[in-house]
Amino acid sequence: MDYKKFKEIKEKHGDCGSWAIWAEEGNKPKSNVGDISIFDTSRNPSLIQNLKPEFVFVGLNFSKINETTPFSNFHSKSSTAQDFKIRYALRDTKYWGSYMTDIIKNFEEISSKNMMVALKSDQSLLEKNLATFEDELKFLGVENKLIVAFGNDVFEILQNEYRNKYNIKKVPHYSHFMSKEDYREMVSLLI
Q1: Three-state DSSP class for residue 27
Q2: Statement: the pTM of the whole predicted model exceeds 0.90
Q3: N or C end of the chain: smaller count of CB under 10 Å?
């Protein structure tokens, strides 16, 4: 990864994509999760060397589209968001700096059940998003990626489409009702 590629990814896929790097936790577990100033290379000069596009974590879709700043996905400022669990689970692991994205782009739906119903009733919605996702993976410029699905629904989609092409693993969705410590333990066991 170099600065030029980083900027290209930001411009082309920054609306839905991001990186598994967060600001330091403050006095509360959720503090600073939404601080995306860490993606400013003038403030964080070591950023580029810490990015790992060979690992891709994939969510289903936006639960709420309230932020359009590049790389803000998985870095929600909302007090109800659970993104802090991903930060806790990946900190000090080889997955810190992984690429993160959603399989379904720019589709706001809080219920994964409703999202899956929408995909089953509109095959073109799924096909369009799979093509975009495949383009995004190619754009990262890395062969032999490990793709990690957040939850069963994403895992099912990825397995159906890419099981013969990529190494795909599944971890629980970070919104599952469990402590950040239990989530970290579960993620470390599964990947």
Answers
A1: coil
A2: yes
A3: C
**Structural domain for 54, as ranges:** 3-190
Using one digit for the tens of pLDDT, what is the confidence trace for 128-170? 999 999 999 999 988 878 999 999 999 999 999 999 999 999 9
Phi, psi of 171 (to 5 degrees): -125, 160
Q: Residue type for 82, please?
A: Q
Query: How many structural domains comprise the chain?
Result: 1
Q: Which two tokens stand for residue 185?
A: 């333990």
Q: Token pair for residue 44? A: 């964080």
CA torsion through residues 171, 174, 179, 181, sign: positive
DSSP letters, 144-164, are: S-EEEEESHHHHHHHHHHHTT
Here the CATH number for the domain that contains residue 147 is: 3.40.470
Please state, in angstroms and rounded to a whole number, the distance separating the CA atoms of residues 175 and 124. 28
**β partners of residue 101:** 58
